[in-house]
Amino acid sequence: FAAQYPENTLEALCAAVKMGANLLEFDIQLTRDHVPILLHDADFSRTGNSTERAMDIDFIQTKSILVGEVSKFGKTFAAVRVPSLMTVVEALKGWSDVTAFVEIKRQSLEHFGVAAVLDAVLLAISPVINQCVVISFNAEVLFELKERIEVKIGWALPRYSEDARRMAEQLSPDYLFCNEKKLPPLSEPLWPGIWEWVVYEIVDPPLARDLIERGVGIIETKDYANMANALRD
Is the bond preceding 201 in cis, omega lying within 30 degrees of 0? Predict the structure, then answer.
């Protein structure tokens, strides 16, 4: 619901669920002390009031960082702070019909390594593991995850290519995520497989309908209310 609320915040997720969403997607970075937090970028300069990188500070230091996207929303959400993954897990416990797509971001993987990041994320989501799908652009993360634990996974395609198709067939993810701009022409069918296609970041209802007709199972959007109302019929 990032069109109307600051992205990667509990406020945005709660608002989407209140409007009827039962699928959520958010991004994860690790702080220096290995606490998973909701954050897309490596630092807070775009959404918050700090240029600090998440991996260079401890979680307690994020308490003073505001992520209300003042440049976008003015003072409306000026007091919104960085949520930990554990905070969202607590909310998910009360949303038994909600599935969370938990995206592990590359900056934390590069900084801490795959094993450390997976350790932290899996520990945090363990109480609601059956409600979670772990997603990443990094196929290595997902291969290791499959060796560790039985959990649904989603691979975000870095590109739509034959090499990526072969990798998808090896990985056999539950979901394939793709940016709409990376998809081939409408005349070319999407790869068949055990996966369900998820296309992002769609805010145009006619485009969403075209994608659904093409076989896309899930439309990811930052404008949930308007898209849900437009596609309800």
Answer: yes
Residues in the chain, overall count? 233
Q: Which two tokens stand for residue 92?
A: 């998910």
**Longest distance between any two alpha carbons in the chain, whole Å:** 52
Distance between CA atoms of 119 and 28, rounded to whole angstroms? 13
Within the chain, where are the H helices?
10-18, 70-73, 85-93, 106-112, 114-125, 139-148, 162-171, 205-213, 224-231
pTM of the model: 0.96
Tracing tokens 């308490």 back to the chain, one arrives at 63
pLDDT of residue 49: 87
With the C-alpha atoms ordered 96, 98, 99, 105, is the resulting torsion angle positive or negative?
negative
Q: Which amino acid is at 230?
A: A
Q: Radius of gyration (Cα) for the chain, nearest Å?
A: 17
